[in-house]
Structures are given as C-alpha cells and as structure tokens.
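Thread amino acids onto this structure.
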C-alpha cells in the first residue's frame, strides 16, 4: 500500500486550506502523521511527521524548523503566510501554512484524515466499511438500532445488533439504501440539520418508532446524520453517546472522502503518464488502473465553435458524464481531463466503442446544452500502446466538424494522414521547397489557374479528358495551361518523381483539391 506523500496531501487538501511555501526535498517525501507541538517539551524523533506549530508565530518559527529537521520531520505547518522560507530551505524542511483564523483542531482533523486515507482500501461500495462497525458500537451503547446517512438521506451504514426493535421504514431504507421520501421526512431533516445537539423526533406514522438523531459536521460542513431508533429502552446517556458517535462519524467520512479524492488523483496521474508515454512501467500502471488486454483511447471535447460561458466547469461536467456512462458499461473505468479534452480508455476489441461514443455525445450534448465531439484512436494490444491511440484520437479531433461529430481513426485515415503529412512537410525546409511555390506565385501574379489545372490532371491519372471534366473546360484548355505552366514555372511534367512531389505539395501544403466544386 502506497504511503501518503506531501504531494498527495496537497492534492487532497491544498489550495486555500493549505499552502506550500517550500519543499526542499520535493513533494514525493512521505507524510506519515500529523502532530501538535507543545513548546514546553522537545520534539520526539518522528520521521515523516507533519508538525502543527501551535502557539508559535509564523515569523518566529525558525528554531522550530531546525528542531523539526533534527527530529526527521517532513515539514512544519504555521498559521499565517510570513514564515521563514529561507530557513526552511536551509534545514531541508517543508514549510506550509494555513489561514490566520484557522482553528488548529480543525486543521489537525483535516490533515490527519487525509494522511490516514488509503486509496487501496476504498471499495466500489464507497469504502466506508468502518462506518458499519461504528453503527454497531453506537447501537450497542445506546440500545437502539442505528443508521448513518449522507446529506442526501442515502444510508451509508447500519447496525446489525440482534434483538433491537426496528420498523418498516428502517427495513425499506436498508433494502433501497435510501430513506423513503415524504413531506414529513423533509421537515424532520430540516429541523435536524439546524440543530447542534441530538434531537428527539416523534414517529410520523402508525407503526413507526420515534428516533434520536444527530447531524454529522466537520468545520461547519454537514456531512450526514446518525439515527437511532427509540424502542423505549434507550440508555440514559444515549444522547451523549450519540454526540460522540457523530464526531467519530465525521472523522470517518472525511477520511473516506480524502481516500476517494486521493485514489482518483493517483489514478488520473497514472492515466496521464500512460497517455503521454512517460509511464516508467506501463504494465504496472495499467494493473493499478484495472486495465488489461486490448483497448483504445476515446477523446471527447466541447465544440469550439459553441459559446460556453464557463468552459472549464463545463469540461469537468463532461468528464463526469463520460465517467458515468463508461462505468455503467464497463464497471471500473479510467478517464481524465487534460487541457480541455476528456480522455477515456475503452477496453475490449472495439466493435461497440463508436456506438458508446455516439451515446455519450448525445447525452452530454443534452445535459450540458453544448455540442460535443468524440474521436476514437486505434485499438492497441496493451497499455504500452495507449499513447499511440491517444495521438490518433487527437488527430481525429482536428478533422471533426458539425457534419462529422464522431469518428474512428480508420474512418478518416486519409484525412488525418494528409493532416500529419502537412505538419511534417511544413516543418522541414527540404520537404516544403520546390516548384509548387513558383506555380502558386505565378497564379497569384497573373490570375491564372495553373496550379488547380495541374492538380486536376494529376488526380485524373494524367488523363487530359478527365482533368477537363473536373475543371469543366475543354481538353485543349488543359493542354494549353500545362504547356504554359512548364514554360513559366520551370516544371518538368515528364518526370514521374517531380509529378508525384508536385501533387503532394499542392494537395498537402497548399490544400488544393481537384474538383472546383
């Protein structure tokens, strides 16, 4: 199981909540725990720990940084942004800060939850297994069947202590993992989430038992609620027990959230490396992402011609749509947003990939009210080829338009090949030099159409009648133009190599097509 690093911690709780000022040893250093500093005692040796400088002004934390380095700590967190960065760099200790008004106990709870979060422990069932043990503990201590919910009244965990009374509402809620909706329930939740202590709530219908409930909060944010059925035999200290249980539930919910965010970040970074070809061990990265066997990369992007007020946020919503649809089809799924493009890895041989992409484009366009386009790269045998499949998808994106919103690379292979040839030839002087420039210059100066006539003739296999048909002129006109072209532009149309090079340069670099339509 991977240890939490400083970079992982910043990814989960960084930004306004936690700012990094310097990390002399890099962000890959481990962070094993978070500790509070008592200025009256020396620091114990705790390699990898992150120290909260409680009671020490940021500007006066220099000695603490030296002591932290001697104790093997990873870094020090001060309150306020005026900490001694130079001294932190000198001692090789990371220096971080929180806001001046941040409560240290909230900071400690937040960082400890993130550090303790282990992505490998997060299951597909939200990774909240410890909540079931907590529900059993609360039920045993209070004497009533217990359920723990999220803010949307979804049941996250419930007790299984035998012999405790339950009612039909609890049975239905557990079966559906959702509290049955009703106007009466809505009012009870409104009262509960406004409370700051355990609340006794009466039964709403015949046959239903009353409840003792407590909101779960952390740092002012409501994370959920804990409900205990009152069958008439609750313990005298049930309210105190429930309050303590809600506090523990807050820690577990924060830890689970941090684990999910950390797992998602690590998965996104692994996928980014696979897609850009920088993964040191593609097979191991693919195994960690749950990828095996053949796959292809699909790229989804908002239509650049559409007016999108908040493109960044809309792109994130597109990522959610793509993830949801792919997870519904394949279960575990790898997807990431890179520079405004949502990339998804679609497993399998690929017969149904285009249909899935078309469904996603339709659903996303309807949900986001913005046209979406999708490009699919070539199927590759394993994760080592995903960078190539991504390159294919990127090229396909560039040839899509309103008339072709979804395409697989093989369907537009000629167009993307010419596009890539144009880039390569344009970058190399020896490939972009030649008589084609003289032909275009002569046309521009004299108002002639020699370049287009030449392309039509070459497209027609050097057949004069075919060229004349493409241009809608008499064959003699074509002959005359080609003779004039050779005379004024100095081209040798009897040389097959020169004909081929001229055709490529005019078609690829000048973008000329044979037909006039």
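Threaded sequence (517 positions):
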């Amino acid at each position: 199981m991977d240890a939490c690093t400083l970079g992982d911690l910043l990814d989960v709780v960084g930004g306004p909540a936690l700012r990094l000022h310097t990390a002399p040893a890099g962000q890959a250093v481990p962070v094993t725990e978070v500790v509070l500093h008592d200025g009256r005692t020396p620091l114990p040796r705790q390699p990898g720990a992150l120290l909260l400088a409680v009671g020490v002004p940021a500007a006066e934390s220099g000695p603490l940084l030296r002591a932290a380095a001697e104790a093997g700590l990873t870094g020090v967190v001060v309150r306020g942004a005026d900490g001694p960065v130079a001294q932190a760099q000198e001692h090789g200790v990371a220096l971080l800060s929180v806001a001046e008004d941040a409560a240290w106990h909230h900071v400690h709870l937040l960082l400890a939850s993130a550090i303790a979060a282990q992505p490998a422990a997060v299951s597909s069932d939200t990774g909240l297994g410890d909540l079931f043990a907590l529900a059993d503990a609360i039920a045993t201590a209070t004497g009533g069947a217990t359920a723990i919910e999220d803010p949307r009244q979804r049941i996250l965990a419930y007790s299984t202590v035998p012999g405790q009374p339950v009612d039909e509402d609890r049975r239905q809620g557990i079966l559906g993992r959702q509290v049955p909706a009703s106007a009466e329930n809505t009012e009870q939740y409104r009262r509960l989430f406004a409370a700051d202590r355990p609340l006794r709530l009466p039964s709403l219908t015949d046959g239903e038992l009353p409840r003792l409930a407590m909101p779960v909060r952390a740092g002012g944010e409501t994370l959920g609620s804990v409900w205990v059925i009152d069958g008439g035999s609750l313990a005298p200290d049930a309210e105190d027990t429930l309050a303590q249980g809600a506090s523990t539930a807050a820690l577990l919910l924060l830890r689970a959230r941090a684990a999910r965010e950390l797992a998602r970040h690590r998965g996104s970074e692994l996928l980014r490396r696979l897609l850009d070809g920088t993964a040191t061990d593609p097979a191991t990265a693919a195994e960690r992402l749950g990828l095996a066997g053949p796959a292809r990369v699909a790229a989804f992007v908002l239509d650049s011609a559409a007016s999108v007020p908040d493109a960044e946020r809309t792109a994130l919503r597109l990522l959610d749509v793509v993830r949801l649809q792919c997870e519904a089809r394949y279960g575990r799924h790898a997807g990431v947003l890179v520079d405004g493009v949502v990339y998804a890895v679609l497993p399998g041989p690929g017969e149904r990939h285009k249909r899935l992409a078309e469904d996603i484009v339709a659903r996303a366009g309807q949900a986001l009210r913005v046209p979406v386009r999708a490009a699919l790269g070539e199927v590759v045998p394993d994760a080592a080829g995903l960078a190539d499949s991504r390159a294919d998808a990127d090229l396909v994106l560039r040839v899509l338009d309103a008339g072709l919103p979804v395409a697989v690379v093989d369907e537009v292979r000629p167009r993307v090949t010419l596009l890539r040839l144009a880039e390569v030839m344009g970058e190399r002087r020896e490939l972009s030099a030649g008589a084609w420039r003289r032909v275009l210059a002569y046309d521009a100066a004299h108002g002639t159409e020699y370049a287009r006539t030449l392309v039509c003739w070459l497209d027609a296999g050097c057949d004069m009648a075919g060229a004349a048909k493409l241009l809608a002129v008499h064959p003699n006109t074509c002959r005359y133009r080609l003779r004039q072209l050779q005379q004024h532009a100095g081209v040798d149309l009897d040389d097959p190599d020169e004909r081929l090079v001229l055709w490529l340069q005019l078609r690829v670099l000048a973008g000329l097509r044979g037909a006039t339509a």
